[in-house]
Amino acid sequence: MSRDTARKTDTSPPSSGAGPDLDHLRHLYTQMLRIRRFEEAAARAYTQGKISGFLHLYIGQEAIAVATADLMEPGDRVVTTYRDHGFAIALGCDSGACMAELFGKATGLVGGVGGSMHFFAKDKGLWGGYAIVGSHVPVAAGHAFASKYNQDGRVTLCFLGEGAMHIGATAEGMNLAGLWRLPIVFVIENNMYAMGTPLSRQSPVDDLTSRAPGWALASDRFVVNDVLETRTRLAEAVAHARNENRPALVELLTYRFRGHSMSDPGKYRTKDEVDEWRSRDPLHRSEQQLRDAGITEDALTAIDDGIIAEMDAATAFADESPLPEPAHRFRHNLIEDV
Ligand SMILES: Cc1ncc(C[n+]2csc(CCOP(=O)(O)OP(=O)(O)O)c2C)c(N)n1
Q1: Ligand 1 atom, smallest distance to 134 CA
Q2: In a domain, 16, yes or no
Q3: 115 in the Ramachandran plot: left (φ > 0), alpha (ψ -120 to 50) or beta?
C-alpha cells in the first residue's frame, strides 16, 4: 500500500527542551496516523468497487477522535455520526473488522449489515454511528439520562457536525440535557461545510456555542490544531459533566481534507482554502512535536511502515472474508435476538 499523505521530512537536529511526554505523544500520533492510513486504504477500496453505498472519510479530523479515546474512562460512551471510522479505530476496534464492515462482510464489526455509517462496538465504548443528521442527539441524551439515573459515573460524549445544529432533534436533546443536568458533552465537529453548504448559509451566527446559555450548557470553542490541547480542553468539559452533572457544548473548528463523501467533487471550496488547512494538519504538528522531543526519522518511518502493513492486512482480511448468510439480515430485528 502507498502513502497518500506523505509525512513531512525534516533533517534538523532535535531540540533538547522539555516537551510533552514522549510515549504519550507517540501513542497519540500513532493512533492519528492509523486512522489516516485506514481511511486512505478505504478510499482506494471504494474506487476499486469493493465498498457499496456512501463512504465519509475522517481525514483531517483525526485529532478529535484520538483525543477523545485518550481521555475516556471505562464505561464512558461515544455516540457519533456517519463519519465514524475514526472513532472505531481510536477506541481500539480491530482494523480488519472495520474494513470488513465497509466491505459488507460477515466478519465486519457488526456482521456486515451496518456498513460505513453504522459502526457499533459497545465493548469499546462506541454506541453507534448514526446516518440521520441530528437523530443521535436525543439518543445520546438518553444514554446520559441512564447514567444519571443509575449513578454509574459515566459520561456520554456526543459528536455532531455543525449541520446538525439546525435540526429539531438536536434542540430537543440539548434542551433535555440542560434541563436534567445530564452527564454529557456535546461536541460539534465544525468542519465548515454540511455537504457543500458553508456555515454562513446554514446559521445566522458563526459561534454555535452562542446557543449554549439557552440550554443551560457550559461551553468551550477552539480550533483543533493540536491533539494534546484538544485532549486537555475536552477533558475539562468531561470532568465537569462527570463530577458536577454539568453538561457542555464544545465547538471544535476543524476541516475535512477530502470531500463530504467519496462521491463529492468538492467544487464549493478553493484549492487555496484546502491547502491552508492542510498546512496546519494536526497530524503533521504532532509528528513535528515528536521530532522536537527527540524521535528519529527511522523511528517515525518504522511507525508508518507498521501501520501500512496493518492496513494491508486489514484489506486482505476484508477481501477474503465471506459475505453474510442471507438469513443474517433478519437477525437483531426482534428483541429475542439481541
Ligand atoms: C435529517 C437528514 N437530512 C439530510 C441528510 C443528508 N445529509 C447527509 S450528511 C449531511 C450534511 C451534514 O453535515 P454536518 O452535520 O456538518 O456533518 P459533516 O458531514 O460535515 O461531518 C446531510 C445534509 C441526512 N442524512 N439526514
Answers
A1: 1
A2: no
A3: left
- Say which CATH number the domain at 200 has: 3.40.50.970
Is the beta carbon of 83 within 6 A of some atom in ligand 1? yes
Ligand 1 site, residue 316, Cβ cutoff 6 A: no
Instruction: Give per-residue pLDDT as tens, 171-221.
Output: 999 999 999 999 999 999 999 999 999 999 999 999 999 999 999 999 999
* pLDDT for res 333: 78
Count how many Cα atoms sit within 13 Å of the Cα of residue 252 in the half-sphere of its side chain.
Answer: 32
Q: Which of 83, 133, 268 to mutate to test the pocket of ligand 1 (most atoms within 8 A of CB)?
A: 133
**Could you tell me if 43 and 116 are in contact, meaning their C-beta atoms sit under 8 angstroms apart?**
no
Q: Cell 457488526, residue?
A: 110
Residue 79: closest CA among 147, 135, 149: 135
Is position 1 within any domain? no
State the total domains in the chain: 1
User: Residue 3: its pLDDT value, please?
Assistant: 65
Ligand 1 center–CA 194 separation, angstroms: 6
Residue 18: beta bridge partners? none
C-beta of residue 255 within 8 angstroms of C-beta of residue 57:
no
How far, in Å, from the CA of 152 to the mean position of ligand 1? 32
> Of the candidates 71, 74, 126, which has an alpha carbon nearest to the alpha carbon of residue 98?
126
- The letter for the amino acid at 62 is E
Domain range enclosing 40 = 22-318
The reply to whether 338 falls in a domain is no
Q: Please check whether residue 300 lies inside any domain of the structure.
A: yes
Which uninterrupted H or E stretch holds 309? helix 297-320
Whose alpha carbon is nearest atom 1 of ligand 1? 133
CB 208 within 8 A of CB 165: yes
Cβ–ligand 1 contact at 198 (below 6 Å): no
Average pLDDT for residues 112-123, to the nearest whole number?
A: 96
Write the DSSP symbol of residue 166.
G
How remote is the CA of residue 74 from the centroid of ligand 1, in Å? Answer: 30
Q: Is there an atom of ligand 1 within 6 Å of 64 CB? A: no
